[in-house]
Amino acid sequence: MLDDDVHLVRTFVLAAEARSAGDHPFGALLVVENERVAEARNRVITDRDITAHAETVLVRDLERQRRSELLADGTVYASCEPCPMCVGAMFWAGVRRVVYGLSTARLTQLATAPGATPVGFTITAPEIGAAATPPMTFDGPHREDDAAAPHLGFWVR
């Protein structure tokens, strides 16, 4: 049986590491048969690539290593609910199950200054996943307070 909680906590550590490196605080990993086979963190600033979200970095790294077939056999754990771009990348790479910590709604609250207009998508990853054929399963949010910790003070300065 998968230990979702343990793997999710690791994504929160990866998110904190990303923030410490100057990137946005997001982390992701792949687990196959309860073994972590790959980890990634956001690299948007480091790589100067707005698409270098943790989930897309994970998919790209596995593809470059010629191990992308593992994505269909495992579960991706993400510190935050994946954005539509990441959902699409994971779908086309074969991912069918994702477990995440922070919800997009909570992230939007953390990232929006008082009185400012929120920016982002209102469609959720579970909604996109349910509309896919074959469908993707999204399980979350989980441990939102822990998942929010790396974001506190990051977005609204």
Describe the structure.
The chain is of the alpha/beta class. It contains eight helices and five strands, in the order H-E-E-H-H-H-E-H-E-H-H-E-H. It has helices at residues 4-20, 44-47, 54-64, 70-73, 84-93, 104-111, 125-130, 144-148, and strands at 27-32, 35-41, 75-80, 97-102, 137-139. Strands 2-1-3-4-5 form a five-stranded mixed β-sheet, with helices on both faces. The protein is globular.
What is the topology, as strand order, of the major beta sheet? Answer: 2-1-3-4-5
The number of helical segments is 8
Q: What is the oligomeric state here?
A: single chain
Largest sheet: 5 strands, mixed
- The coarse silhouette is globular
Uncertain residue segments: none
Average pLDDT figure: 95
Percent range for β-strand residues: 15-25%
How large, in whole angstroms, is the Cα Rg?
Answer: 15 Å
Q: How many distinct beta strands?
A: 5
Q: What is the chain-wise order of helices and strands? A: HEEHHHEHEHHEH
* Helix percentage: 40-55%
Structural class: alpha/beta
Report how far the terminal alpha carbons are from each other: 42 Å
The gist of it:
The protein is built from eight helices and five strands.
Can you give keywords for this protein?
alpha/beta, 5-stranded mixed sheet, 18% strand
Topology (elements, then pairings):
Layout: H1 4-20, E1 27-32, E2 35-41, H2 44-47, H3 54-64, H4 70-73, E3 75-80, H5 84-93, E4 97-102, H6 104-111, H7 125-130, E5 137-139, H8 144-148
Parallel strand pairs: 3-4, 4-5
Antiparallel strand pairs: 1-2, 1-3
